[in-house]
């Protein structure tokens, strides 16, 4: 079996395909546009399902809410590509070459020296205005994370972009590189590492002043075909600035769908490059998909003195060295010339473009990023819609079974005397009484369910998290020695994991109780109820493990504990690690609340439907008892109702097939997908 070209080292791919092949191999704009069209088609299919459920009154509020959230996720789906490098590695030039060459000039400034001084996001939000938003660096002193400050426009300096003209964009983006000089004390207060020797931080100049960025974060909204399709380009600053904004390494980079780590071919992997790779790109030591290494500036080898064979050999050796140093496979290392690629695209020079090898990197980026994201969105959409369809089908099948049972009962009454009809009435009344007795148990279960839910939130809820955060802060501030600080921070993680474990126990109790109730109603009253959905806290436990690994690497070291003042260390811990832990628990609370609503919904819906059908059966027989000439009319009504429900089932199957077709799911559906989706 052959190896896909995109999985080969770039120089081997080039040799296979030949330098004379100058046709661009990947059009990222078209790939992203195709992905956008695919999402739109999926959204249309889901919207049809949601409208149909509402129009035919066969859905419930929970199902409608789930489909609404799903449509919002499909509409607002974002793909973040982060570019990470030390200064002067050609990072901004690479962004220009890949995404913005169609502008005919550089968009991001890429002159020598430091051009990107703060994390910069380039994006487009539907309904937004073209603008540059800059977050002042002194907001760091308040300890509020960037993610929270994004909710408050008044905290930002907003500069409207009157147009998306290239010159105006260039001028606006130049603001991102602005700096100012402050004292060493103020720089340290704002979170910058200060080192007189300049080895482990920024060194002061002759006047004792330190140059820092003027801005903490930048958001640039402007129209571009790729950005309109949901692409977000994250341009990061160098090592010292990354260290000043730990939210980058704790949240933004780990959550990016693809990260391009850029090196310079003329320097290879320097010590500062290695520090960025270990602490920022591979923080936690967990390898993730979509992490590519770019060896830039290979055009430095095109000096006219080396022939092609020698150039290829040197590039191959550099690829081997970089892969070995970083501990990655050669297939994820891509030697390129960003500058020549940009020039080639602007001048429409196909030969130079091929030699720059930018298309090979684009192919890898497109084939690694988009299919992986599409698989996630496909599985998420299938899981949500199929669960809704299964619930609706179960409800309609129960309704159909009830109609057929009524039809059979009334058909059997043809030619029967009044005593038989009276017997039938007594039988239905007896069933109704038995069901009402069962309802008492159902209401008791609801009460216990409420108590168990309260117990669950006592462990997982945000109040419990706030209490743990307060205790940890007090313990750290009261600590006299380094050991006390370390114990307090390590106990924080230990206690949060313990809370999740206790939550898992409560979730098990809830699931077992509902499973028993589901089975009781299925056996005693013929309700069609499958086992309740399960819920796992594993993803939140894994996120805590990742945070603890980063904490151990960045804060829980002998050097940091000894050299960092207690209040500064406490502030840093709660600005970084604790903020991310809170975000994890916020997501966990949202997910578990949705699960608790969803897990009761099938039983509530079936109980309500069964009550309605019992009432209709009793009223029907009553009318026949009072006037036997209504029997045939009622039989005809039931037959029409049977046909109508069957038509709804057929329409439901067609809508489900439409969702599957829009997602292109048939070819991707693994064995056992139905069961997995129902349990998802």
Structural class: alpha/beta
Q: Indicate the low-confidence ranges by residue numbers.
A: 1-26, 669-680
Total of helices: 24
| Total E-strand runs | 11
Rg (CA only): 32 Å
Percentage of residues assigned to helices: 55-70%
Mind explaining what this structure looks like?
The protein has 680 residues and is an alpha/beta fold. The chain has a domain at 417-626. The chain has helices at 10-17, 28-55, 61-76, 91-99, 146-149, 166-174, 184-189, 225-228, 239-244, 247-255, 271-281, 308-326, 338-347, 350-356, 358-412, 418-460, 462-478, 482-525, 538-554, 558-563, 566-575, 577-626, 631-663, 673-679, and strands spanning 79-84, 120-123, 131-136, 157-160, 179-183, 209-213, 215-221, 231-235, 258-264, 291-296, 333-335. The chain has a nine-stranded mixed β-sheet with strand order 4-3-7-2-8-1-9-10-11, with helices on both faces. The chain has a two-stranded antiparallel ribbon with strand order 5-6. α16 packs antiparallel against α18 (482-525).
Summarize the structure.
The chain is α/β, with parallel strands linked by helices and 680 residues long.
Which features does this protein show?
alpha/beta; 11 strands; about 675 residues; elongated; two-stranded antiparallel sheet; nine-stranded mixed beta sheet; disordered N terminus; 24 helices
């Amino acid at each position: 079996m052959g190896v896909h070209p995109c999985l080969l080292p770039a120089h081997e791919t080039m040799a296979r395909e030949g330098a004379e092949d100058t046709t661009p191999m990947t059009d990222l704009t078209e790939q992203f546009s195709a992905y956008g069209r695919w999402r739109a088609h999926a959204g249309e299919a889901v919207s049809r399902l949601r409208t149909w459920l509402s129009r035919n009154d066969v859905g419930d509020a929970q199902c409608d809410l789930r489909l609404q959230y799903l449509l919002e996720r499909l509409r607002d789906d974002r793909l973040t590509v982060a570019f990470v490098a030390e200064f002067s590695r050609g990072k901004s030039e690479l962004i220009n070459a890949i995404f913005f060459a169609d502008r005919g000039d550089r968009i991001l400034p890429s002159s020598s020296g430091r051009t990107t001084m703060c994390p910069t996001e380039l994006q487009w939000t539907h309904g937004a205005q073209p603008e540059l938003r800059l977050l002042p660096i002194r907001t760091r002193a308040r300890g509020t994370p960037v993610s929270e400050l994004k909710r408050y426009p008044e905290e930002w300096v907003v500069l409207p972009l009157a147009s998306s003209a290239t010159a105006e964009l260039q001028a606006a983006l130049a603001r991102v590189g602005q700096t100012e000089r402050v004292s060493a004390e103020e720089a340290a207060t704002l979170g910058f590492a200060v080192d007189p020797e300049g080895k482990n931080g920024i060194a002061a100049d002759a006047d004792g002043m330190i140059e820092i960025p003027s801005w903490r974060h930048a958001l640039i909204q402007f129209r571009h075909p790729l950005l309109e399709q949901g692409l977000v380009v994250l341009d990061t600053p160098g090592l010292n600035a990354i260290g000043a904004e730990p939210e980058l390494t704790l949240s933004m980079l780990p959550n990016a769908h693809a990260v391009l780590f850029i090196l310079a071919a003329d320097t290879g992997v320097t010590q500062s490059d290695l520090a960025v790779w270990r602490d920022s790109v591979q923080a936690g030591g967990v390898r993730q998909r979509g992490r590519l290494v770019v060896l830039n500036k290979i055009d430095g080898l095109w000096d006219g003195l080396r022939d092609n064979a020698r150039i290829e050999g040197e590039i191959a050796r550099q690829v081997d060295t970089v892969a070995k140093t970083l501990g990655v496979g050669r297939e994820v290392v891509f030697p390129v010339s960003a500058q020549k690629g940009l020039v080639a695209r602007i001048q429409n020079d196909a030969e130079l473009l091929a030699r720059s090898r930018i298309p090979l990197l684009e192919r890898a980026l497109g084939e690694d990023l988009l299919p992986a994201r599409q698989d996630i969105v496909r599985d998420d959409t299938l899981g949500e819609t199929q669960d809704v369809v299964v619930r609706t089908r179960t409800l309609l099948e129960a309704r159909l079974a009830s109609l057929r049972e009524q039809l059979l009962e009334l058909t059997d009454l043809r030619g029967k005397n009044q005593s038989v009809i009276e017997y039938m009435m007594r039988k239905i009344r007896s069933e109704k009484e038995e069901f009402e007795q069962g309802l008492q148990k159902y209401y008791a279960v609801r009460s216990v369910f409420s108590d168990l839910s309260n117990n669950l939130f006592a462990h997982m809820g945000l109040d419990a998290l706030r209490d743990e955060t307060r205790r940890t802060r007090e313990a750290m501030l009261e600590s006299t020695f380094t050991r006390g600080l370390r114990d307090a921070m390590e106990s924080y993680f230990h206690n949060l994991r313990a809370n999740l474990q206790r939550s898992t126990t409560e979730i098990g109790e809830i699931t077992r109780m509902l499973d028993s109730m589901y089975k009781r109603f299925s056996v005693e009253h013929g309700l069609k109820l499958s086992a309740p959905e399960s819920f796992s806290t594993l993803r939140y436990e894994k996120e805590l493990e990742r945070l603890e690994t980063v904490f151990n690497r960045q804060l829980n070291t002998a050097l940091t504990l000894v050299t960092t003042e207690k209040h500064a260390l406490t502030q840093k811990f709660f600005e970084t690690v604790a903020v991310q832990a809170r975000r994890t628990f916020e997501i966990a609370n949202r997910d578990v609340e949705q699960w608790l609503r969803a897990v009761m919904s099938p039983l509530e819906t079936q109980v309500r439907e069964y009550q309605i059908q019992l009432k209709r059966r009793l009223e029907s027989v009553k009318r026949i008892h009072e006037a036997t000439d209504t029997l045939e009319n009622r039989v005809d009504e039931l037959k029409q109702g049977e046909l109508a429900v069957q038509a709804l089932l057929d329409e439901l199957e067609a809508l489900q097939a439409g969702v599957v077709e829009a997602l292109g799911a048939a070819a991707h559906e693994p064995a056992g997908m139905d069961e997995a989706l129902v349990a998802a």
